[in-house]
Write a structure and sequence with these properties.
It is built from eleven helices and five strands; from the N terminus they run H-H-H-E-H-H-H-E-H-E-H-H-E-H-E-H. The protein is α/β, with parallel strands linked by helices and 277 residues long. It has one domain: 3-Layer(aba) Sandwich (Rossmann fold). It has a five-stranded parallel sheet, sandwiched between helices. Helix 7 links the parallel strand 2 and strand 3. Helix 1 packs across helix 3, helix 1 runs antiparallel to helix 11 and helix 6 runs parallel beside helix 7. The two termini are 13 Å apart. It binds thiamine diphosphate and magnesium ion (MG). The site of thiamine diphosphate (TPP) has 21 residues, from helix 2.
Length: 277
């Protein structure tokens, strides 16, 4: 896919996510919209992973440590055929389904359970270290939140990744400056992240995490320094729908009917601007 197609895909999947959350009155709206471009870049362009090879030794691994933003991940996996869109639309947020609102290994494509913040990086370190020990060429990607950086377990994992020179590990921080109850800095300041990770032995790049071209380039560039790579992806929480953008209360707010319809119109306008062909 070229950049234009990837941008369209991200917008289309934002729309499906907005619909899913509205129709079932559940979900982490702002968190999903924030990282849509990162997931699309990984799944449609960068990763060596398919519904057929996921979980095998040669396939890349994706771990979503900010597990609460699972709705956008569901939509990606449904669109690519890992899971059924019909099952998702009917079962989301219902009892006795695997669509429980956080990632579960009961769904194809989800190799680890997450949701309790702070664990994905440690899991990623384990996968990357094991791959090195087994001489595998696979790469591991971990998506974290910026509020999540308050978890102490992240820093133990970061130290281990530097210690073992895990250049087959790329972590991305969805740096939207907000967490559940306010700004990330007001709840628990984690900035400056670049200097902290560098001190732990990481190569760090900072990018606009909602610009598809930039995201693809940053994710595609191999880690050249023999170090694990951190991408600080500066994003807008709620990206794409004005009412939800940069608002902490939209972390898991459900749109009213009027907000829903306005949001759909805005996303349709963005899709039209990207062209219909
Ligand atoms: C260990 C733990 N503590 C608290 C929570 C509740 N919680 C869910 S999302 C969230 C905020 C996360 O903010 P951030 O990491 O910035 O993610 P964003 O939604 O902004 O992408 C919190 C505190 C949790 N899931 N796990
Ligand atoms: Mg955040």
């Amino acid at each position: 896919m070229n950049t234009l197609e990837l941008k369209k895909k991200a917008t289309e999947l934002r729309k499906y996510t907005w619909q899913l959350i509205y129709e079932h009155s559940n979900g982490h709206t702002g968190s999903d919209l924030s990282c849509a471009d990162i997931l699309v870049a990984l799944y449609y362009k960068v990763m060596n992973q398919t519904p057929e090879n996921v979980g095998s030794p040669e396939a890349d691994t994706y771990i979503q440590s900010k597990g609460h933003a699972v709705e956008i991940w569901y939509e990606v996996l449904a669109d690519l055929g890992y899971i059924s869109k019909k099952d998702l639309d009917e079962g989301y947020s219902k009892f006795n389904t695997p669509f429980i609102g956080h990632p579960t290994t009961h769904l194809r494509g989800m190799e680890f359970n997450t949701g309790s913040l702070g664990h994905g990086l440690g899991l990623g370190v384990g996968v990357a270290l094991a791959a090195k020990m087994d001489g595998l060429s696979k790469h591991t990607y971990v998506l974290m939140g910026d509020g999540e950086q308050a978890e102490g377990s992240i820093w133990e994992a970061a130290m281990a990744a530097g210690n073992y020179s895990l250049d087959n590990l790329t972590a991305i921080v969805d740096h939207n400056d907000l967490q559940i109850s306010g700004t990330t800095d007001s709840v628990m300041r984690s900035n400056p992240l670049d200097r902290k990770y560098e001190a732990f032995g990481w190569e760090v790049v900072e990018i606009n995490g909602n610009d598809m071209d930039t995201v693809v380039k940053a994710l595609s560039q191999p880690n050249t320094s023999g170090k694990p790579k951190l991408i600080i992806a500066n994003t807008v929480k709620g990206k794409g729908i004005t009412v939800a953008e940069n608002r902490a209360d939209w972390h898991h707010k459900i749109p009213s009917q009027e907000e829903y319809e306005t949001g759909i119109k805005q996303l349709d306008t963005q899709l039209e601007a990207l062209g219909n062909d």
